[in-house]
Each structure stands twice: as C-alpha cells, then as structure tokens.
Design goal:
Layout: H1 10-19, H2 30-39, E1 43-48, E2 51-58, E3 61-69, H3 74-83, H4 93-101, E4 110-117, H5 131-146, H6 149-153, H7 157-163, H8 184-190
Antiparallel strand pairs: 1-2, 2-3, 3-4
C-alpha cells in the first residue's frame, strides 16, 4: 500500500501517478524499493528547463535517469494564467481543483525517459519503469509537494507566460509607492 510521504498534495500526486498509474492492475515489486531510495535521500534531482536529471545512488552504484517533460499547451497556459492572482500566487489544492474543473489539469506529460545504468542491476535501461526512474518520480513528487511551482516550472509555464504579450484578466498590474515618499497627512486624508 502506498504511503503519504509522496504526493500528499494534488500537485505532487501527479508525479506519484507516473510511478503508480491507475491503470496498473498488478503490484509492482519495484515501487517499495524506489520509494525507499527516494525517502532515504539517495536521489539528487536537478531541473534544467523541461529536463529532470536524477542521479540515483543505490548501494555502491550510481545511475542517471533523464525525464523530459512536454511543454504546457498554449491553451492551458492562458487558462491557468486567468486563474492565478498576484505576483507569486499560492498554489493550493483548491486552486488545482479549480484548474482541473476549468479543463486545465496541470499534470505533466512525458516526452521521453532515459536511464543510463552504470551498474549490473536487473534494470533494463530500455524501459521507462526501471527502479531509478521510479525513484526520480517519487523525489519529484516530494519536491513538488514542498513547492508546487516546480510542477508548472518544469512544463515551462512561467517562461511561456512571461513571454506572452497577453495579460491575463485575473492579474492586474500593481503600482508600488515608496512609503517614505508619502506625506503621512496625505495618506491619512486619502484613507478617509
């Protein structure tokens, strides 16, 4: 039975679903081992654009798993941008549900998975379900649980939305005024 160490937010659960798809009908004996590897901190993940690179330490062996995530569609970017408010919106489970209800599920879509095993384990580097890739999914779930912005960032949401010339309707530009530039009497009068 899965534990709640990974995917306790809706954002992180998307990454857990990559390791534990709902369509899977048989238990996968690699999942408990992959969770333990991630739980024990033996997966170092770096994100470079849409590429997740995981260095997985297992015993005396080290393997590298590369996961390429598809960029978010333009329609999804526009739809999600309309739901976000503020400069640094808080990505809650309620927001996730609202995005999904609006037809813009922010789950990652994978383009490719590659595992280069430098060990003589039973891992077949030709399969996207090797223990190293599964451990990388769990580590990503943990990171996304801690900071859901990673889920959007790895799909180039922020880069694409900042390149866009369209300003989302829900986000209004803020004008900041230095407090020391205000006359306290003016401020008192303006607030009445």
């Amino acid at each position: 039975m899965p534990d709640n160490d990974f995917g306790y937010t809706m954002w992180g659960k998307d990454w857990v679903r990559l390791a534990e798809p709902l369509r899977q009908t048989r238990p996968d004996p690699q999942l408990p081992r992959a969770r333990r590897i991630a739980r024990d901190g033996r997966v170092q993940v770096t994100i470079d654009g849409r590429i997740v690179r995981a260095v997985v330490h297992r015993g005396r062996h080290t393997s590298v798993a590369n996961i390429e995530v598809a960029p978010m569609s333009r329609e999804a970017i526009v739809g999600i941008s309309r739901q976000l408010c503020g400069v640094r919106p808080v990505l809650t489970d309620e927001l996730y549900r609202a995005l999904t209800d609006a037809g813009h599920r922010p789950a990652p879509t994978l383009v490719g998975v590659d595992c280069s095993c430098s060990c003589s384990c039973s891992c077949s580097a030709d399969t996207p379900r090797c223990i190293h890739v599964l451990a990388a999914y769990y580590e990503m779930a943990r990171r996304v649980d801690d900071d859901p912005r990673i889920a959007l960032d790895v799909q180039e949401f922020f880069r694409a939305s900042s390149d866009s010339t369209e300003v989302p309707t829900a986000v209004t530009p803020q004008r900041w005024i230095a407090l020391n530039a205000l006359n306290p009497a003016d401020y008192f009068m303006a607030s009445k």
